[in-house]
Design a protein that fits this description.
The protein has about 130 residues and is α+β, with helices and mostly antiparallel strands. Helix content is about 25%, strand content about 25%. The strands form two sheets. It has a three-stranded antiparallel β-sheet with strand order 1-2-3, covered by helices on one side. Strands 4-5-6 form a three-stranded antiparallel β-sheet. Strand 1 and strand 2 form a beta hairpin. The longest helix is centred in the middle third of the chain and has 20 residues. The C terminus is likely disordered.
């Protein structure tokens, strides 16, 4: 379970840049099929859950979490994926050479960063208006 916790922390760290509170995360399982349920809860107790296969590769598990945990943030906090610096576009997760990275989905985009290393400097944020 500690490996799953470490991977969840990478995604939560990146998403928590946009909000002050951090969710609690609990783990159940494995179930009869070997899957572990991950429940992401806000301070009020509202939660969003999903399952992962703990026998999958590290990259596959992290990719699944990078897809699912942002959805939980949308439900719980009305924010989602990290924003591509200097834009209002949400980054999307991709697996590149067994590494899960946030990428800019724009047509001519070159920005990317490994999941767990996202930091958006104030000067990179788009201005309001």
């Amino acid at each position: 379970m500690s490996n799953l916790r470490d991977l969840v922390e990478l995604v939560v760290r990146d998403l928590s840049v946009a909000i002050e509170s951090r969710p609690s995360v609990t783990y159940s399982g494995p179930d009869g099929q070997g899957y572990v349920e991950i429940l992401v809860e806000d301070g009020s107790g509202m939660g969003v859950g999903f399952t992962v296969d703990p026998t999958a590769s590290r990259a596959d598990i992290l990719y699944e979490m990078a897809c699912r945990i942002p959805d939980a943030y949308v439900e719980l906090y009305a924010v989602g994926l990290p924003v591509v610096p200097g834009t209002v576009r949400p980054a999307v997760p991709r697996v590149v050479a067994d590494t899960v990275v946030w990428v800019d989905p724009g047509e001519r985009a070159a920005w990317s960063c490994p999941v767990g290393e996202y930091r958006q400097a104030d000067e990179g944020r788009p201005e309001d208006g």
